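Much of the work behind modern protein science is quiet bookkeeping, done one molecule at a time. The protein below has been through that process, and both of its lines are reproduced in full.
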Amino acid sequence: MDTEPQSLRGTRTAAAVLALLAAAGVLAALYMVFFYAPTETSMGIVQRIFYVHVPSAWVAFMAFGIVALCSLGYLWLRDERLDAIAVSAAELGTVFTTIVLLTGPLWGRIAWGAWWVWEPRLTLTLLLWFIYVGYFMLRGAAESAERGKRFAAVLGIVGAVDIPLIHLSVQWFRSQHPKPVILRPEGPTADPEIVQTLLVSLLAFTLLFFALLLYRYGLERLRARVEAARLRAADARPAAPIEGAFR
């Protein structure tokens, strides 16, 4: 008995529940961003990009961590479900990294007077984006789909090494990027309202990511089932007789 359709229905149901929770979280975060959190004294109104920029970075790093873990599992177990999770998370991670790279210059233009500065954290984040663009290029350029999945899995694991480098770069190198103001051993230096708004934004973006991940995973599994059915139908189709073979 084929239980896959039932599992896909369960995935869609879980995704729908998470999507509703994410929508409520995003609405709450937007209210707090514009009506609850105070305007930061030194940077002014532009600091409100913080509530999109930081959660997007958190989600992107989490997504690529999932890619690495599922890629490692796929190389070990050859479970197609792990590859489906990995490619789904990689797509979403690339999208959220793009948001980080777009919101960062908007913030930097006001804070630094320049759209882009080749400082360590920005450069390493751009490198991460290129690594995961390469992830998809490898999947499509290999001679066979299986080989493409293996090559991409290796790159997904190696690429995740860049994540701790991005996080620690402001501590290890001279950097224009601000040091952490929330996750500090001594405690946050920001106003409590700013911290609370950021936490709600982090929760909303996390729920949104997992809702999208489940939707994308279900789509990937459905695509794989359709492809498998197409191949079975092609194998079952009788070969056309060669013209003139029986003359």
